[in-house]
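Cross-posting from the modeling subforum.

Setting up a comparison between two proteins and wanted a second pair of eyes on the formatting. Protein 1 (sequence, then structure tokens):
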Amino acid sequence: MAYDEGLAHRLRELVEDDRAVTEKKMFGGLCFLHGGNMCFGIVRDELMLRVGPDQYEECLAQPHAREMDFTGRSMKGMVYVGVDGFSEDEDLAAWVERGLSFARSLPSKDAVARKKAARKKAAAKKKASKKPAKKAAPKKAAKESAKKSAKKGAATNRTARKR
């Protein structure tokens, strides 16, 4: 499924200064993420927005907006905006800001991933410190055992000779 490259260019221009915004192909279109959280995108020639549950009803009341029903079921907190709803640059910027505003309110998935990795590393370190000291290597233990046997054998031979 293709998406509108002209709209993609307009969206890129709006967010080019925000280093936290990345692009990812999703839903058969193009999505923009802020800190790893989806905020808006393009499906065919429509603008798709993640506005969250608080702004959902308000956004649906706007002209040219409708609920996102990508899978055949309504996705609460997500809306589509038809082409006429963002034909003017000011309208597009307002919609994009709604999507960015919601995504900024969420914890960054990058930060969450770093915290999760740090916790995992700390748990592994703690587990490693609880392990008992390693036993002697098998070869070394075998050599020591052979030496002890040899000493015992020599002592036994000496005792046998004395009798």
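Protein 2 (same layout):
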Amino acid sequence: MTAPVPDAELPEIPGEGPRKIWRAGTLTYTTAGLVVLFCWLLWGDFAWSMKDRAIPQTVQLLLKKFGASDMVTGLLFGSLPPAIGIFLGPIIGYKSDRHRGRWGRRIPFLLLSTPVAVLAIAGLAFSPKIGAYAHKWLGPHSWGLDPSILISLGLFWMLFEFATVVANSVNGALINDVVPQPLLGRFYGLFRALSLIAGIIFNHWFWGDADTTYVWIFLGMGAIYGIGFTIMCLNVKEGEYPPQPPMDAGRNNRGGGGHRRTGESLRPLLRQVRPYGHDNVWQLSCAHLLLLALPGLPAGLAGGPVSSASSRHWDIGSLCDRGVVGRALCQGFTDAGHRIGSPWRGQWYLADRDAIA
């Protein structure tokens, strides 16, 4: 991505003066085009925020209503999403980065995951009826009415998390691909404001009666998300991306090829990092990684409302989704260079983001 072209270099239109052009990769926007882009993206993000604010809260309410223990709630909300994300997130991100098609490299994954999420939300809406039917059909072999309902809720919640992980793995990348770099901060500020507004709307008008109107809440939020997010995907256009270099088939078939490919992908970054005292750097990096990751482990296992909420922010899935490993590594390099009285001092530089991308 490049900064907007200076006004002095732009052609003038008679009667209008020079225009300001914004660029994101091969995409170019006038101010009016940028406003349209923001409207579509924010519309999709509002639908996303309504889903994120409403669905997890309502599912937790149903789990409590049908007798789920704190352990079960903690596993479903604190352990299951990170377990899915830590394996599925990197795969989807890798496939998306290398995909080339008429719809771009992000939109196809968002379009494919949206109906799956809507189907899962509809399944959550009718889980009590599905569980009751399963209980009646199994007869004496049933585990009971409430456990049958909880199993149905758990299965559809897992399907919902699969779709959410897929979409979440590429949604932020789509924004980074189509929004000009100088405006990313402003966009995320607007997105955060919309997310808070979505929370206010749901908590004020819908949450109070959620225990009796949960079916309509699920169906309504599923419709908002399915329609809103699909409209956004159909109206946001990605630019063109350079072709990916072909993979070395011979090397892929040899043992350890995956590790070599990973090392090669990190080499442009690590080439720019010049630490002095490697052992100390890696020890500090591992220490920071443990400090960032460990708070989520007891939360995911112990369950409970507080631990479930905290594990959504401090969990193993964050290692992939939020770059905790990268933060720990960079913090280790930083500490290695600034430890007072230590012989291990160094300098580290990050390569230009465009060169890495």
